[in-house]
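User: Predict the full complex structure for these chains.
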Amino acid sequence: MTSFMISRRSVMMGLAGGLAATALIPGIDMSEALAADTPKAGGTLKISHSTRIATLNVLNCSGPAEYPVVDMLYSGLTRMGPDNKPMADLAERWEGSEDAKTFTFYLRKGIVFHDGTPCTADDVVATYQAILNPDIPAAARSVLNMIEKIEAVDATTVKFTLKTPFADLPISTAHANARIVSKVALSGPREKLDTTANGTGPFKLETYDSARMVRLVKNENYFIKGKPYLDGIDMMLFPDLAAESANFLSGAVDVMLVVQQADFQRIADATGITAQRIPSGRFVNITMRQDQKPFDDVRVRKALAMSVDRPTLVDLVLEGLGRPAYDNLVSPEFPYAIETPEIAYDPAGAKKLLAEAGYPDGIKIKLVASNRPAIRAQVAIALKQMALPAGFDIEVETMPHDTYLANVWMKGQFYMGYWGMQATEDATFNLLLTSNASYEDTAWKNKDFDKLIADARATVDPAKRKELYAKAQQLQLDETPYIVPIFEDILTASGKGAEDWTIAPLSRYYYAENVWLNKA
Amino acid sequence: MRNFFSTPTAIVGTVLLAIVCFAAIFGPMIAPYDPQAFDPLNRLQGPSMMHLFGTDQFGRDLLSRILTGAPSTVAFGVGATLLGVGIGSIIGVVAGVTGGWVDSTIMRILDGLLAVPDLLFTLLIVTILGGGMEHAMLAVSIAFAPGMARISRSAVLSVRTRDYVRAAVARGESGVYIVTCEVLPNALSPIVVEATIRVSFAIMIGATLGFLGLGAQPPSTEWGLMVAEARQFMFRNPWCVAIPGLSIAIAALGFNLFGDALRDALDPKRSHG
Amino acid sequence: MTRAYLIRRLLAVFLVLAIVTFAVFAITTMLPGNAAIMILGEYATPDAVAALEKQLHLDQPWYTQYLTWVAGILHGDLGTSLRLSLPVTQVVGEAFANSAMLALTALVVVTITAIPLGALAAIKRGTAMDLALGLFSYLGTCLPEFVTATLLLVFFAAPNHGLFPAGGFVAPWENLAGFGAHVVLPAATLGLVLMAHIARQVRSEMSEVLSSDYIRAARLKGLTERRVIRRHALPNSLAPAVAVISLDIGYLLGGIIVVEEIFAWPGLGRLLIYALENRDLPVIQAVTLLLAAVYALSNLLSDIVIALLDPRVRYA
Amino acid sequence: MTVQTMSQTVTAAAEKPALSIINYSLSYKTANGMVSALKNIDLTIPKGKTVGLVGESGSGKSSMAWSVMRYLPPNAVETGGAIRLAGEELLDYTPYQMLDIRGSRMSMVFQDPSTSLNPTIRLGEQIAEVLMRHRGLTKAQAWVEAEAALARTGITRPKEMLKRFPHEASGGEKQRVVIATAFACEPELIIFDEPTTALDILTARQILDLFNQLRDETNVSALYISHDLGLVSRVVDEVSVLHKGVIVERGLVGDVFQKPSAPYTKQLIGAVPNPDRWIGVDAPAVPQTLVKLDGIGVHYGAPSKIQKMFWPDDADKIGFWGAKDVNFEVRKGELLGVVGESGSGKSTIAKVLAGLQDFQGKLEFDGKTVGSRRAIDRAYRRRVQIVFQHPDASLNPRQKIGTIIARPLKLYGVVPREKIKARIAELLEMVRLPAEYADRYPHQLSGGEKQRVAIARAFAAEPELVICDEVTAALDVSVQAAVAELLVKLQKDTGAACVFITHDLNLIRQLAHRIAVMHHGKLVDFFDRPDARSADRDPYTKALLDAVPVHTPAEA
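Assistant: Here is the predicted structure of the four-chain assembly.
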């Protein structure tokens, strides 16, 4: 194991001090930590990414490389900051009622879309109505479906009325797919949203070539004066990871949007490169269907939980670039996260537990993993090895992603899940664990848990919510509906002269307006 | 099939083939380590006394993985080819023997299928079937069938006009006898030769599918997959891509050389080296 | 080589393509999963998927889809990419142009090197150089592209001290030097296999010609070796070489799939893989059809060239 | 002139002979050691004379040609002797020097003009290049010269011919081009390597005449290599007989023919078919018709239904007639000869009779009428058997001789199963092959032996009609005779009728009772053997008869 301690330490040393800080105290704006001197304007930033930008449709885009682009092109009412708190975006301020059932957002004055037409409350209303319209594919609907009605009080004031109390609305409005589209665009043929963009973001669309490059140029009328610093951004596609890293290291590219764990060390050590680990709540989870044997028995789930050597897993599959998780979907970044007790790797204990559960000679079972991203299969394979002494005879079946989606996902008994960090505890639990969660795939269905989440949702007082969420998390830890072995850091890197580049722990927010090129 | 071992082609081919087959049969037994066992302390090592071929990203012993991967790789190549040859030559022989509109229809359709590049064809089918080793094998064999049909057909046709077949016809032999006793035995050798050479292609296509994530899947030790998995570590330890890559080449080379030697031995007129 | 012959051949090509269209369509409609799920991914909400399916007309029966598709082709309209929501003609068109640049570069380089090499090997039969070529050609034919490509990357595109970019594409009209730098490795990968194969074929053809009666006759006329080779032997071994090359184009079209994927070359091959992963049926169909068409036509072309090279065929 | 006097001319060396080979020996390195090809050859060609070199395949006559041309394969080893061209020792010349001698001072005419001309180069250039190479002419001059050279070979429109490609010229024309090329630089010596073997009878005759004519015009010295003593006798002054690499006899043609001294020569001459020496069976006393061909026609590449449908008028233009209304009958027990040049349709008739070819018209066999190929039943097929030209192609290489011969026995149930083995032995014995051959594979047998097996297979069915399609064409002279005699013997024993198809008029006149002559798919003549020379023969028949050399050696 030692070799990993070393490698990990050297990573720390290899990085700017500020980064080490972020690794410990989350929530500090990277730009301050890393700023070398006062920003210069001008220059074009080249960003490499390995997945296609297949669509620019802000309402339902989902690609890892599509999020940064829509973040640059569009603005929402609110936006999540590096500290995981909602910050002002189009709305300079907002206020919610005591019962958390009505919210009012006040837009900045004189915002204009890229085509120069003003962006008013009507556009906001139109956008939210589109999101809520079941005939329109919209990814943000699940976090906004509590909205009952939305109206434009005046040109710059929007009022939301909710069916149920929901204190986190300003966070939901920051959802990456809830950014404001012009009323005109929405009334027109919606396909146009896929290939064109008329937003209010810091950058305008110049060319869209999904096969090679998406070129953005500075939005002179951006509502924050003096920003963005850059004249333009080129999003360059490198489907082959080796090719991407090689081009980045050669300096042909300024920013490598996503760095693979395998490459991180090498890239971090390269001169002039700033490699960043941003601790995040992104996690791998092992789905165990609980309406059938063997996982209907909590002891079996706990036994499996005890058969995972989490720190080693972090070293093996994340090259140490992550943190062991202990089956709590809520990572330490969340405001209401509880102190999660560690679960020691204890095959012997697990074996005993299995025996108690009525499996004295172990369990033979098939674990399915999609081949995308590779981490799913890697964790599965590692798990197979680690759980062997505990009496779990796991056969790993990796399958192409499409086959997985068609045949296993949401249906299978035992498979690998992989989720990005959600904006709130509420979003996280409503994504997976509550009985009516969007991707309820364990059949855990715990009424008490549902109630706790519902109550927390309606509660405004932070203290009360903290308590409720603590209970919910504890309940989750007792029951182990999922095994969550690791949290994966977000890894990105910027080359010489590319300053203030960072990504929010939530990902999906990139603050490209702050980035500047420090080139002579 | 006189003095088969006269050419270097034959000797080298046979030797390589012997090595590959040996690995395919005894590989798993003689593998020094469990091919799946992790060794977190020795990841991405170069060759050493402890790990002759070095280790991969999980510290798994490459030699052991290559050896345990051999059976599936060879089985894939041979299996896919046999299946393809089977399907293909049946179609081809039927077409060649019956002739007439049956023949021309079959040939038209084959032309159509042959116009689609092998790999592309295989990709399509394997995506339909949904990845995995068995499906990949089936896909390859289907992709092979048209080509084999062509070859076996022309083999049959070339034999059909020989005098000894004419003599049989003149004797009033039954069609079955003519096909089974006069035509097939003599049409066989080109088919066999082609099959042997195609095994090497099958192996390569199989590896390619594994590489593209459509063939074998982790934690399988299929060689193409090994290259794919190790690619992102290739700059840290070139061995973990080079070793499986070269293994594929050697296996393919073995069958290819052997096939060519076979052809030369069976058909001395053909002059090439 | 009459006009009638040409027309007959062209008709044959179209027949083939007709068969291909049906086969391709049949195959593609059999593909599991559907574009809607693939587009929205596993993080999409079910109602979003439903909505998208409606928007993409995935709910219609296959024959309606086929007929509309064929009708589209005849009007030169290949539909709209489900995933990229761009006209397929545009997407495929650009990709085709890029692939063509790569494939042609490889093909041209290979042709001008492989033919002389093969001929030389045949003339210097049994010498070390002949042996070397034989070895090389076997190795070339037995290294799958992805292995060759990976090894080339390790050796020539290693970070910091790499000679060539590890991937990507620069349009020649934007920056010719850049294009050159980017095309080297992928073209080399494709070239290695082709060169191996073509050189080998030329060699065997050439040595067959060299052992023919009329070459013997030419020598016994006291002609200089130079003339015997250049005027008598080469032309006769060229026609078969062309045939081989045209057949290898089929291989080449398969090869670009892998090579483009590895070297991030925005061509048909990568487009195809992307389309397959995303169940983008219109694109899959278009690409397959296009590749088949190119193959069929290149064969036709080669037949014509052969006819021009060989009088026996020309007047047949 | 006798052997002694010839050697005197060599020693006298009053004028240097065009070519003198002295005590020359040659062997080849092979997998199983050195194999001697030529042993102590002495051969002299005086200026302006033509010497024939006669031998069967494998006698080493071609090796002789290559030695003289200094064009030997790498595994050839010259073990002493001398080869002198006009006194100059060729063995001393470097390959480079030979380049200037080949084509200019000595040239060669090959057996098969269709393979010895480059298919992709116009005939004109192929002649001209020699002139440009050796006489330093410009392209223009060379082409003019070429035309003249071609004209000398009697080609009617040489200018056109020069512009053609080989495949656009007939065999005879091509051979003329080759000859023109050989004579182009007025060489001192020309080697003719079986120049007529690949040609049709009439064409061969013309080429021979041409050769004689050119020889008289140019007074060139020539070495004429052939397997056909009869043919050689018409062109050469002296002849040497080569057997297993040794010259067994030499002398003036007449002498060698009249009183051959060497036993091999005797045998060779005995084997040469002599039309006047009847060896066939006696004609059946009462002629009974066995088979009757009634308006038999075969239309190759006949138009398909669709073609008939759309272009009915030019349906007849499509394809060509392999045979058109052929009528004749075969009598029981007789031997009917069918003669014709290649493409005359004689083999087509064979295929029709053997039920291998769809035909129009009627076939009457032993009273029963057969309207089409499909109508031919197994009974007919048993009673009519065929033997093909190429023995190595007509035996299935993957079956043992025993199996091959047993097949008809089993198929037709000729003899009860348990007797088959014995019967095979008998049959082999009938064709003068040892019984143990039953366990051998075809490739272990010589050409003649294979043909015997094929014949045994045919007679195993105990047929009433045996069709022999050029059965002797692929065999050496001596073997040829033996096979012919075997056939006759079998006919005697079994009383089967035989349709003997051949291009060799001499041979057929030794065997056949009646002879049918075919030309361009038509039956042009049909006569009893004795009337071969009678005046009312068809002109084509006459031409054929005149074309074949007839020589009357003393009965050896």
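Chain B has one domain: 63-266.
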